[in-house]
Design a protein that fits this description.
Number of strands: 0
Helix content: over 70%
Order of helices and strands: HHH
Radius of gyration: 15 Å
Structural class: mainly alpha
Strand content: under 5%
């Protein structure tokens, strides 16, 4: 891979991480606002449950 290709890849990877963090933050805040603290914990621990919650909460 060229240096430019590597830089573009790393930039895209960084943006993807930032988007993922923002998405998880929105989901966590929605659940906390609804006082669904057990769901917050489960979302942080269980990848499949997290995916299900992203869909059901529209995040």
């Amino acid at each position: 891979m060229t240096i430019l290709g590597q830089m573009l890849f790393e930039d895209g990877e960084k943006k993807g991480m930032e988007q993922g963090e923002e998405r998880l933050s929105r989901l966590t805040l929605l659940l906390m606002n609804e006082k669904r603290y057990d769901d917050v914990e489960k979302v942080l621990k269980d990848k499949e449950y997290r995916s299900k919650m992203f869909k059901s909460m529209g995040v």
